Amino acid sequence: MLSGICALAGLLVVAVLVEIAYQVISGASLSTSRFGLGFLLDAQWQPNFGRFGATAMLYGTAVSSLVALALAAPLGVAIGLYLSLLAPRGVCAVVGPLVEMLAAIPSVILGLWGVIVLAPFLQRQEGWLHSALGFIPIFGSAQTTGLSLFTAGLILAIMVLPIVASLSRDLFLTVPRELREGAEALGATRWEVIRGVVLPTTVSGVAAASVLGLGRALGEAIAVAQVVGNLNLIHPSLFAPGATLASRIALDFQFTVSKLHTASLFYLAVVLLAINLLASLGAQAIAARFDVQRALAR
Amino acid sequence: MIGHEDGQPRDPALPDPTAPLTATGNLRRRAAVNRMVEISASGSALLAVSVLALVLYGVISRGASALSFTFLTSNPAGLAGGGIANALIGTALIVALAAVIAVPVGILCGIYLTEFAGARSRSGRALKLVLDLMQGLPTVVVGLFVFGLLVAGGKESGFAGAVALSIVMLPLIARSSQEVLALVPGTLREAADALGVDRWRGVVGVVLPTALGGIATGAILAIARAAGETAPLLFVDGIYNANTTELNLFGHGVPNIPVLILTTSDLAIPQGFARAWGAAFVLLALIMIANIGARLILARSRRVRMTR
To answer: Which of A203, B108, B129, B255 could form an S-S bond across to A9 if both were Cys, CB 3.0 to 4.6 Å?
Structure first.
């Protein structure tokens, strides 16, 4: 009896996921039939003229997520190493929960902090960064308000960091003690134990954790919408404002000017969903290959 | 192998057994590299903690001044004045309804995965995959889904918001209760089986009570997570009647804290920011309390299990 109810609950979950995909795809039908795959290659987004294309948003999503991952992945792995292997037990018991607290901050509050505290701070710093490194395009000129893809990337990094940190800590704890002690007995320093034993046995899990973090960054809407500047722009500088798939949906949806506009936002959601499912499945595949699923499930 | 005994040159990769046992420059270099790694790892942890401190300081320093008894008990007035009472009530109602939907389904999924689907069964693996995909779903897509399902045509409601939040909660609750249930020793299940009771009675009477603390922790964390979500609520429970208390979850949009923070901070007028920071402070305080409470429950249930 109970097994039947439980199986029913499971079926319900599967049905909901299928229904989500169906609703989003059917909501986009007007736009998909009109633009087809050319939607992905059109950089224009002009609702009032009925022109819609996703390229600038794809660019913004890629740049902000990659900035986030480039910052959060190494930091997260370092924190994971610190918490699992290096820190004294007492420090762990304090720092571990604090890092996880970072994940509990609602995105709208992080976004508010980003707009009011972080963006003005970055705006003050960008002057010297531009004058010192302006010859490199990614630091190049862009009239800035502090709202940019880079600011979005920083906020996303704060969101991704605790995910990567706690996943990689759990992973490093699964490395058998004997392996570490064996290396230590050979005279290896702690770093050599990490480089020679811990990282090689967990590298696939670390990769999977990073991809999961990337998935989180790709899909975040509200905080990014608050700090990204919301311009449909492809500019080589990181400090230019832009838009991401998710931020565009969050900002435009209540103010659509036509049915085609709404359908195009659903189309963006289809694209986002596809990228996101690929990232999730990719992380699953990497993790499953090396059977580190238990640690990742946490 | 040992080259110099038969007159061949020694393999340079092997250590020279006749060398004195004092530190060479190489060892000092290795120690220095090690030190550097340790320092940068602790520095990273320190950086994460200071980011948390910076955000908390930002919210507390700006939010605490907006906070007062009337701020919590009066409805918003005008564009950006007044308090947040109606949004607090709205968030409580929506989150409670979402929990009523998601907690039972989530726990049942967890029970199915650990008790009824075998570890290698196809159905169990499929459900796990679906839960993982659901957990990774962008919340803005969840919002669009519920919009298409329940709201399209101007039927915004607190109920639609609760459905959206329950989709955010569900995979978190399912995975955490599955993990906690998997930690219940198999000997307990076998003892129940040996008494001749049905499988479901063994689950309800023995396995679930043992794991209750952990399941509660997971559920509270999931509820706290959902309480702060804005994107799923934005399209399905937007605020048009932002200044009145709305107790009917099936009529109009219900004012709630996250959307209030977003809309009042978008106004870009000073009073709006003050109200947004005040609301952010209240929301963050509630979420932090829930998080700490959940951890305490977990610690306590672990201690009880150990002393048994």
So the answer is: B108
